[in-house]
Amino acid sequence: MAKIETVIELLHNGAKKYGNAPYLGGKTGDAWQTISFREADRLSSAFALSLLRMNYKKGDTISILAEGRPSWVISEFGLLKAGCISVPLSPKLSREELVFRLEHSESRALLVSENYFQKGAEALGASSPLILVCISPKNTHTEELARKFSFHEGKNLFYYDELIAQGKHLLDAAGGEGPELRIGLDEIEDAISPDDTVTISYTSGTTGNPKGIMLSHRNYLHNTFNSAEVVYVPYGWKSLIMLPLDHSFAHTVGLYIFLYRGLAMYFPDSGGGPLSALRNLPSNLQEVNPDFLLTVPALTGNFMKKMIQGVQAKGKPVYFLFNAGLRAGIKYGGNGFDKPGFWRRFSTFIPRTLANVLIFPRLRAFFGKDIKFCVGGGALLEIRQQEFFNAIGVPVYQGYGLTENAPIICANSAERHKFGTSGNIIPDLEVRIMKDGKECSTGEAGEIVTRGGSVMKGYFKNPEATAETLRDGWLWSGDLGYKDEDGFLVVTGREKALLISADGEKYSPEAIEEAVINTSRFVNQIMVYNEQRKFTGALVTLNGAELKAAVEKAGIVFGGAGGTVLSDDDLNRIINLVREDLIAFRRLPVYKVIPPQWRPASFAIIPGVFDESNGLINSTMKLVRHRVRDFYRTRIEEMYQGAADPHNMGNRAALRELFN
Prior knowledge:
Layout: H1 7-18, E1 22-28, E2 31-36, H2 37-53, E3 61-65, H3 70-81, E4 85-89, H4 95-104, E5 107-112, H5 117-124, E6 131-134, H6 140-148, E7 157-159, H7 160-172, H8 178-191, E8 197-202, E9 212-216, H9 217-230, E10 238-240, H10 248-261, E11 264-266, H11 276-288, E12 292-295, H12 297-312, H13 316-333, H14 342-346, H15 349-358, H16 360-364, E13 373-376, H17 383-392, E14 396-401, E15 408-411, E16 424-425, E17 429-435, E18 438-439, E19 446-452, E20 458-459, H18 463-469, E21 470-471, E22 474-483, E23 489-494, E24 499-501, E25 506-507, H19 509-519, E26 523-529, E27 531-533, E28 537-542, H20 544-553, H21 568-582, E29 602-605, H22 625-631, H23 633-639, H24 649-659
Helix pairs in contact: 1-2, 1-10, 2-3, 2-7, 2-8, 4-5, 7-8, 9-10, 13-15, 13-17, 21-24
């Protein structure tokens, strides 16, 4: 087999090797439909020919704003075949963020699904030189939106289905412009270099302004081939892609590793609006029955909480057996790498067996009947989640990467894993831990730097940021971590996100936030905060149903026909309930490593949730810390007035709003 040097050659190779096996799957109405590897190659060529006919040329940038769907994948491969560069965009972007990326990337077109047609049309405006391409089928809704925003078919609006149909005709036509365009397509492909840019992927901006990361064919193929060596997935397995395709983890694994290994990716049913994919997820999991899943800690944390709450609702005997089985499963598994001794494992036999027969199968069934494991990325996966899912029989193997590294740097796997780490470094990638200009010894924390074929070309139109991040071929990640004695990489946090106390000491907030989320009944979201302050605080959103149930149990009357307005004493009691719940993690041995000075001493209750409407979370559901800080600056300052006392006016007002 000839050496594969571009992702287009990877697609051709997949078409030849796997033929009519399913590659892409989506739901139309009540039926799932698949697209084979061979068909994906042909359809993307059809899309490319239509772009050439519309005078798109090598080096043009085209943005994509849509949820994951087969037409997303076909469109990107098509525009790459036409020599263009893809700019994957998060559907959660605000209008201003979207406009910035379109202008900064110099995009000539915007591809949107029906769910994001309006957002795209509003960002472009009828007078924009960019065209809009709808990658969903034309219907009355899209036609109404087109009229509303003055987009005209054939002029500044085109539909994917019609471009594909036109392209198929050009592929097969013996005369007319078909042969000439096919020759042009072949010439473009022959001229593509391994160092040509495939995507400009904008950073989510969790700690600063976004930058456009340029990733080449070489970058993606290096990461694809080497990452596939760390996490082995056999031919024919399938997955439901729950993460957005603009997310680099889902993009590399879904488009390229699936193509390389002959795997099938299905997408959640998104018909009915942007939130429908999440609403349809449970039923789609049962219909697809994935062999493995890609996930992020926010998703698995939510799954874990719902599973625990579901077991609790079954009554005390079931919950007792569940907890006994869970403890036994965690004890039996150890840290995944260093297995406990025989007698210690033997002592877990009875509770583990009972739970595996009576309870755990029902929890596993949430993911479908074929699930083997999940691979987590996007953020740090707290060890308690890893232990929990391993104990119930659906291990979540933590990985680590960043978009600038295309993105995978290391990962745990079924063959070799250790809970609490981010896993094994992929082959042919150099990773150093640096501190004060020197390489750290084993176990010593510092900044993670990488060098190898996966490392990005640079930041688009940003030589200053490129020079700061890329030094002598080494990528300085801004993330902190260390290598342990067994060669596993342990990531401890982001340097720019560190808490800084008044005396200059630093600590990572992620460990504290995960501890709270995994032990709290009431806390829905949390951002721990300390910027050279006298104590550590936290901004929290609450699970209203759980808190109200606890308040009723405590005998506090609120709302309803016989209810009363909450008094100051009642509000103080509720605040005390939240305070005790917030630091409940301190009672568990696994969290005793968190020093007392970094535990939240006070907090600000935020009504509602942190969401994408104000840009407070990104596409992987991570908090954009600087935006949360700036948006709630008044509440933060109130939290630090005087002593560490959460009984303030802001929290009282937030609780009154919650209990109304």
